[in-house]
Amino acid sequence: MKITPTLFLLSFLFSPLCRAQKKDYLYYVKTHCDQLIDRGKDQYGRQKSNMLASVIDTRDMSIPKENVTPTEGTRPSDRAVGGSNFYHDVELVKVLKELTALTGNQRYTTALNQYARDFMTYSQNPLTGLLGWGEHIYYNFYADTVMEGSDPLGKYKSHEFIESTPPWAFLWEIDSAATRKAIAGVRYHFRSGVTQSFLYNRHARWHKADKPEYRGLEQYQDGGQAWIKHSGLQCYSFTFLYGKTGNPEWKRWSEGTGNLFWKFRNPETNLTISCVDDPRPSGVNASLPGASLLAYYLLKSSQNHPDFAHFREKAETFLKAIEKYSWDEQRKGYYSEVALDGKVADPTLIQVINTGYGAADILLVGRVAAYFYKVTGDPVYRNMVRKAATLVAAQAWPDTFVMNSLANALQFTLDAAEVLNDKQLVQHAHKLGNIGIQKLWSGKLFVRQPQDPYYESKLGANEFVSGLLRLHLLENNQPARASLLNWAF
Questions:
Q1: Quick one: residue 251, left, alpha or beta (phi over 0 = left, psi -120 to 50 = alpha)?
Q2: What is 304-320 written as a DSSP string?
Q3: Spatial CA neighbour of 300 closest among 179, 167, 440
Q4: Backbone angles phi, psi at 57, to 5 degrees
Q5: What does the buried/exposed string (b/e) look like for 311-320 if buried means 16 or more CB atoms within 10 Å of the residue's CB?
Q6: pTM attached to this predicted model
Q7: What is the pLDDT along the chain (489 residues), one digit of tens a residue?
Q8: For the region Disordered, what residue ranges are annotated (predicted)?
Q9: DSSP code per residue over 38-53
Q10: CATH, domain 17-223+351-487, list 1.50.10, 2.50.20, 3.40.50, 3.40.640
């Protein structure tokens, strides 16, 4: 059959791509969230709940019990197949709140509040207070209990924070007593409840005390594993709790955790190690992503209470130091690791965009710098954002990728556009948003990679959706509501 221009035009107008392009961003945000609320709740096992599934098969909207192949870079044991991990849905908290504000429909905040309440009810350990979330553990719908991976015996159940800022403020609104207990439980990462060193393990046992000690608390795992970002996450948690209670004990824990890596820095360069008691290069050297995250959480900690204003100075010192010694002007890129004397430890430049999951890239550092600029107004951070934005804009988007990389690129591009007041970056953000719509929209939910039927919250689906919502707000002349200060990770 001869294809005439008219026939070609008609076929395009009725094609899925054209129909997708005619819908605005809010349509995709609402449809995605409506499907999660309507089809993603826990209706399995003996105990039904309002928790939302972390993995959904979009072909029939079922919640698979097992046998979902992980994507590139994802460890099989660190997923929530067959259940829910609230930490993976930190971005969803913001999205659902904003949807109710935009539409006036209370179903979004109602579903969110029910989700959070059931999550704390069913996943909080009554002894330790720790929540069943984070890097390794989740609440399994079919087993009606907290699990680590697919381990039915629950021998380890390792509690570990991940990169997003813990949503303590929101959880406090839902149940202040449970939230207080959850933050107090963070002490189980440490060697003792009366610690003076504040050395810790990034892992804690969620479920029980394996080694009783006369001091009442125990270190659940012997050894080190005091990686740098966790110090900042712990400090943020304790400063939040001090701000709510005024209890001097939480001030002690705030100061101890927030100052830990300051003690290990080289005072001449202000570079600090990446892990205490780890002799490997990745532990003894300064890490660009690690130091950036510690600085980020310290800056956020300084905002939790006036007593911690001094953390801002430490945060800025750390970030300026790692930026100074990591940037190579000739190669126009950042080193991932440098020695504490400022010399290059590894000549490999950090990736601009990691298209899988797990490895750090420049997007993370760029988002941290953007937040610092908005809070402080220091042009040093604006220049960091410009460097990162130049690198990102030069990258052609690949055909093969995992959702989290696109979500991170979209969020950073929006942050950079705001900081640099750059309309071209806004247009680039629109391009990234449309790539996700064209390649990852299943008609019901956003899936984790092209040609894949699974939605998986761990892999940035809701972070991407929040990016689309920011685009919608910008299109409707609401830049203040789209601001990075409202959508920071």
A1: alpha
A2: T-GGGTHHHHHHHHHHH
A3: 167
A4: -85, 110
A5: bbebbbbbbb
A6: 0.93
A7: 444 434 433 443 444 444 445 699 999 999 999 999 999 999 999 999 999 999 999 999 999 999 999 998 898 888 999 999 999 999 999 999 999 999 999 999 999 999 999 999 999 999 999 999 999 999 999 999 999 987 766 667 899 999 999 999 999 999 999 999 999 999 989 887 788 899 999 999 898 665 555 444 444 445 568 999 999 999 999 999 999 999 999 999 999 999 999 999 999 999 999 999 889 999 999 999 999 999 999 999 999 999 999 999 999 999 999 999 999 999 999 999 999 999 999 999 999 999 887 788 999 999 999 999 999 999 999 999 999 999 999 999 999 999 999 999 999 999 999 999 999 999 999 999 999 999 999 999 999 999 999 999 999 999 999 999 999 999 999 999 999 999 999
A8: 63-82
A9: HH-EE--SSS-EEEEP
A10: 1.50.10
| Token pair 């449309």 in the structure block, residue | 434
